[in-house]
Amino acid sequence: MVKFNMHQRVIVNTALTCAALLLPLPLMAQTPAIFKDADLLMGQSLINQNNCIACHTQQVGGDGSGMYKPLGRINTAGLLRGMVEQCNTSLGMSLFPEEVTAIAAVLNHTHYKFTD
Ligand code: HEC
To answer: Does residue 51 line the site of ligand 1, with CB under 6 A?
Structure first.
C-alpha cells in the first residue's frame, strides 16, 4: 500500500479538489450560449417526429447522418440553428422557436460539436 506523508497528503487532496472544481468548466464551455437552456429530449423527439432522418437518408443514403457536414458551410451554432429554422419554414413544419433551438442543440451535440 502507498503511504503518503502529511505534505504529500495535502498535495493529493488539493489536486483532487481542483480536479473536481475544474471538471464542469470544460463541459460547460462545450455548449454554445444559444443552446444552454435547450431541451435535448424534446429536440430528439421532434427530430424523430418530423422525418428529418427519413428524408436525409433518401438524399444521402446510409443512416442519413452524412447530410450533417460539420466542416461544411454550416460552421457556427448560429448558422446551425438558422439552417434548422430554414428547414422549418421551407418544409412547413410549424415549429416554435424553442423547438428549433432544441433540435439544433441535439444536432450540435451529436454531430457538429460547435462550442460557440
Ligand atoms: C423533405 C426532405 C427533408 C426533410 C423532411 C428535412 N430535411 Fe434537412 N435537409 C434536406 C436537404 C435536401 C438538405 C440539403 C440542403 C442543402 O444542402 O442546401 C438538408 C440539410 C439539412 C441540414 C444542413 C446540413 C449541413 O451540414 O449542411 C440540417 C442541419 C438539416 N437539414 C436539418 C433538418 C432537420 C432537423 C429536419 C427535421 C426537423 C430536417 N432537416 C428535415 C432535406 C430535408
So the answer is: yes
- Is residue 18 very low, low, confident or very high in pLDDT (cuts 50, 70, 90)? very low
Q: Taking the domains of the chain in order of start, what are their residue ranges?
A: 30-112
Tell me phi and psi for residue 61, to 5 degrees: 75, -170
- Identify the pLDDT of residue 70: 87
DSSP per residue, 29-89: HTS-GGGTT--HHHHHHHHHHTTHHHHHHHHH-TTSGGG--TTSS--SHHHHHHHHHHHHH
C-alpha cell at 87: 428547414
| Cell 451529436 -> residue | 110
C-alpha 36 – ligand 1 centre gap (Å): 23
Q: Which residues contact 99 (CB under 8 A, 6 or more apart)?
A: 42, 43, 46
Which amino acid does the sequence have at 116?
D
Pairwise CA distance, residues 35 & 12, whole Å: 36
CB-ligand 1 contact for 86 (6 Å cutoff): no
pTM: 0.79
